[in-house]
Amino acid sequence: MIAIPVEHCLLLSVMLFCLGLLGVLVRRNIIFVLMSMEIMLNAIGLAFVSGGARWGQADGQVMFLLVITLAAAEVAIGLALVLQLYQRYRTLDIETISKMKG
Amino acid sequence: MTAEQLQALLPIIMMASTSVIVMLVVAFIPRHSVISSVTVLGFILTFASLSWTGEVGQGLQVTPLIVVDRFALFYSALLLLASLVITLLSFNYFTKGSGSENQVEPGEFYILLTTATLGAMVLVSSNHFASLFVGMELLGISLYVLVAYLSHYRQGRQGSLEAGLKYLVLSGVASAILLFGIALLYAEFGVLGFGQLGALWSNIGALNGIYAMAGLGLLLAGICFKLSLIPFHMWTPDVYEGAPVMATAYIATISKGAVFVLFLRFFMVSGAFMQEMANNLLILIAIASMLGGNLLALMQSNVSRILAYSSIAHMGYLLVVLLVANTGNVPVSTISESVGFYLVAYIITTLGAFGVMAVRSNMLDTRDTDQVADYKGLFWHSPWLASVLTGMLLSLAGMPLTAGFIAKFYIITMGVEGLKWLLVSTLIIGSAIGLYYYIRIIIVMFMRHDEEPITGKRDRAVSTIDGLVLAALAGVLIWLGVYPGPMIGVIQAAFPG
């Protein structure tokens, strides 16, 4: 088996994380914003698991489990708010509800 | 786990059981007064259990994740008292909406208050990245719902939904950034405990290597976001304005307080304060927050937004204390003492200001009573409320005879002893600008006006509970300003081991 160097894993996770961050910044549809946040969280998971593999510890995987839990909880609340948003405005565009300025 | 360790964990266990019990009460006895009383009782019992943790001495490590020391116990006590105040003030805020057709018992609000406080208690006792993460998310996820809480009522508030979504997305991104920082640090060093990290870093000296520096930078950025320091402050005014006022008070006091306490522990124990890079970044952030927060507050016409920008500035002042650590002129115990006193003063003051706002607001209105114009002539029809708010604003401005003065005095002393002249002069300029907008609200309250209040409704009589809570807050504020000795003694006994 050929071992994958830890730098490659970290590079991949940095790229995924930046893609997710970019998605959150440019997307206007709230569902896509939430999906981009999931990508960021999965990038974090990858970084933890590769760190755990590098040091031969279980800690990285434990942190990964916690990250998955966070992702699930966050998306549950996110979708509940998305439902409220849709019922009230019939749209998923986050620009339409942004009233507060300054 | 030994019996001793279990006993040390007692407050956290009590808080967790309170959440479960409140949840059961909401399910089986859905009456507002019962739910509220059980929550209050839970907070009081948890507070009492802080004295039953046994002798923890220099700090008892319970599993690698949690450390129970006097520092953690002191801040747990502070956060519990603040939660208690918020619970008491929430009761009337929600009762005023009752009697209408689609009244829903606000039970979930109380459950979330208990879970958020549990998260805050875990946060102040954590000295490991895993417990940091769990505590911060327990706090954060409860807060997303608290902020958006009023969006599901039929007359519903648009602001609450907007604030909830904004807070969810921005805070979620900030958590992700913080976690990514932790992940990079873990991949680089292979440890998750603050102490182990500190031991490694003291051998290495200055960090080099892209992943280590990026990791520390991202970690700091995430924490600065939670403390709403400039340039990570975008969410603060909108969330403060849109959220129900008690949720705002929770974010402003307990959430920020707990995160700052964690930051203090992390910064000291891991030795991050010795890193040149971290210090330089934080100096920039502190200066930007002290100036920017105060300048942006000048342009606001909404009390919630003014308090939001003022909290940005106050967190900037607090950072100054952390930044003198690397000069070696000031012992850690003194740093911890000034942070402690500042947080106590800040929490009391902010709770009082939002408390007055809560007393005058009604959950069924489309917004809270938070425009500066709503406070016109307040002194002439509710002199007591106006006096309490005046006291709180003067304390935020740092006037003598209030707790805020002693707190600011501490910080300036620290800055001078640490020879941080740039930071100290920025702090003084910032405070001078700050006086203007605090005094503006006070002047508006003393203006005489004969027509009906702008909101078109007279204030209802202040209920006994609200009156007592506000009077107690104002009393403590003056007491700490005039005779701070006993409180300083308590804080001195509690520094991170």
Could you please describe the fold and organization of this structure?
The complex is a heterodimer of chains A (102) and B (497). Chain A is mainly α. Chain A contains 3 helices and no strands. Helices cover 76% and strands 0% of the residues of chain A. In chain B, α7 packs across α10 and α13 packs parallel to α17. In chain B, β1 and β2 form a beta hairpin. Chain B has one domain. Chain B is mainly alpha-helical and 497 residues long. Chain B has a two-stranded antiparallel sheet with strand order 1-2. In chain B, 60% of the residues are buried. The chains are: A mainly alpha (102), B mainly alpha (497). At the A-B interface, α1, α2 and α3 of A face α6, α7 and α10 of B.
Entry summary:
The complex is a heterodimer of chains A (102) and B (497). Chain A has 102 residues and is an all-alpha fold.
* Helicity level of chain A: over 70%
Strand content of chain B: under 5%
Q: DSSP strand (E) fraction of chain A?
A: under 5%
- Arithmetic mean pLDDT of chain B: 90
List the main descriptive attributes of the protein structure presented here.
heterodimer, A: 102 residues, mainly alpha, 3 helices, B: 497 residues, two-stranded antiparallel ribbon, 72% helix, 1% strand, globular
What is the topological layout?
The complex is a heterodimer of chains A (102) and B (497).
Chain A (H helix, E strand, L loop, with lengths): L5 H21 L3 H26 L3 H31 L13
Chain B lengths: L2 H6 L1 H19 L3 H18 L10 E3 L3 E3 L1 H26 L11 H18 L4 H19 L10 H32 L4 H11 L5 H17 L8 H8 L2 H25 L6 H22 L5 H21 L8 H28 L18 H4 L1 H15 L5 H15 L3 H26 L17 H19 L2 H8 L5
Antiparallel strand pairs in B: 1-2
Helix pairs in contact in B: 2-3, 2-5, 3-4, 3-5, 4-5, 4-11, 4-14, 5-6, 5-11, 6-7, 6-11, 7-9, 7-10, 9-12, 10-11, 10-13, 11-13, 11-14, 12-13, 12-18, 13-14, 13-17, 13-18, 14-16, 14-17, 14-19, 14-20, 16-18, 16-19, 17-19
